[in-house]
Structures are given as C-alpha cells and as structure tokens.
Write a structure and sequence with these properties.
By secondary structure, the protein is mainly α. It has one domain. The chain is about 85% helix and about 0% strand. It contains 4 helices and no strands. α1 runs antiparallel to α2 and α2 packs antiparallel against α3. It is elongated and about 55 Å long.
C-alpha cells in the first residue's frame, strides 16, 4: 500500500470514527447542557473538534484528490474518483448545512437546531462510512 493511500486510509478511518462518536454520543448530549452554560460548552466543542478536523481533513482532501487523479492499486480509477466525490460531498455538506447550524447555536441553545444538527449529521456519517468501506476494499485487495 502506498504512503498516500495509507495516509488517506488513516485520515478517513479517524474521521469516520470521529463522525460516529459525534453522531451517537456527543451531539445528542447537547440537549442535556443547561441553556445558561450552552454557549461556553458549544464554543469548547467547536474549538476541540476543530483541532482534529484541521489536521485530518486537509490530509483527507489532498490524498483523495491525488488518488482520484493518479489512481492506485486496489481500486478501479472510478472507485478512487468516487472516494474523492465522497470527500467533497462531506465538505460541501459541512459548509452548507452543519456550519450554519453551528453558527446559530453559537449564539444560543435551540433544541430544534440541535435536532436538525443530529439529523443532518447522518449525511456525513454515512458518507464517511462509505469512504471507509472503499478503503477497506483496498486493504484486502491482493494488489494493494
């Protein structure tokens, strides 16, 4: 397995795990935070989560673009392109759906917005999981 594919797999697997943790554990707990403490809690959540995202997501985007363009053993060229499309779709979903919700939640706690955040985050969780499935295929491929 090439270094690029290994970096891509590492970033994808870590981001998938983070997405599942946030989906199943962390976002639903937003409802339990008292309104008076929510702004401070939300700010800390965003800052700490961004520490991971700002390291892993650039690796994910660059390695996905690289393999989409150049290909690599283990997947067809179309599958590498699909991986890049999944990554771009996650970025677009984040920018157009989740970031605006987080911007509103930064102002005040809103249980309806939290519910929408949890529901809409399923999109990213499913997309990350699909990308992970593709990369698992690479790891078990005899050509990898």
């Amino acid at each position: 397995m090439s270094t690029v594919v290994l970096l891509q797999a590492l970033s994808t697997f870590l981001l998938t795990g983070l997405s599942w943790f946030v989906q199943v554990v962390h976002y639903p707990l937003f409802h339990l935070v008292p309104k008076s403490e929510f702004s401070k809690f939300h700010s800390a959540h965003v800052a700490r989560t961004n520490l991971l995202i700002l390291v892993l997501l650039p690796i994910e985007v660059v390695t996905s673009a690289f393999t989409a363009y150049y290909g690599s053993p283990g997947l067809t060229h179309h599958e590498w392109i699909l991986g890049f499309v999944l990554t771009l779709s996650i970025c677009i979903c984040t920018a157009t759906v989740q970031m605006p919700i987080h911007a509103k939640l930064a102002q005040e706690k809103d249980d309806e917005l939290i519910r929408r955040l949890v529901l809409s985050h399923w999109i990213r969780t499913i997309l990350w999981s699909a990308h992970t499935a593709l990369l698992i295929k690479v790891s078990v491929s005899p050509q990898a």
